[in-house]
Structure formats: C-alpha cells, structure tokens
Amino acid sequence: MSPLLQLPAEDRNIIWELVLGGQVLQSIPTSRPLTLAPSSIEHSGMAVLCVCRSIYAEAASLPLPMSTFVFKSERYPISEIF
Questions:
Q1: Range of the domain at 45
Q2: What's the predicted TM-score (pTM) here?
Q3: Which of 7, 53, 56, 82 might form a disulfide with 11, Cβ 3.0–4.6 angstroms?
Q4: Containing H/E element for 12?
Q5: How sure is the predictor about 1, in pLDDT bands with cuts at 50, 70 and 90?
Q6: Torsion of the alpha carbons at 40, 44, 46 and 50, rounded to the nearest 10
Q7: Domain tally for the chain?
Q8: Strand pairing of 24-26 and 68-70?
Q9: How far apart are CA 50 and CA 60, in angstroms?
Q10: Strands (E), the chain
C-alpha cells in the first residue's frame, strides 16, 4: 500500500485538493466528442492517478468537481452564445 494512503483521510483530502483541484482543462475541437488536450492532463496533477490502483480508486472522481472545463468550438464561437 502507498504510504500516502496510510495518512488520515482528512490529510489525504487536503493533498488531493492541492494536487487535483484548481485545474483548467481545455477541450480541443475534433470530430470526436469531448477530447481533452493531452498536455492538459500530463502537466496537471492528474498524473498522480496513474501511480497505483489504490490511489486511482480513491481520487479518480475528484478532479471533475474541483476543475474548470473550457470547451472550444469552431462551430459555435463563445461570442455567439453570450
């Protein structure tokens, strides 16, 4: 087991918030639905989710509510929406 997972839950939650929270993830326009730019994952704290299965199981759902998603669309520019 990872030493990180041996910490109290309250301490791990603070670590997850610092590592996984506050990300700005940008979509890239493609013909496929919702493709995130690989650099947005590689250069964020989400790489920690690849360390071991136990860490992934505990923290995989946390980046979604803690992050901001930016969707770019060539078809619908943001200026037309607002």
A1: 3-81
A2: 0.59
A3: 7
A4: helix 9-20
A5: confident
A6: 90
A7: 1
A8: parallel
A9: 10
A10: 24-26, 68-70
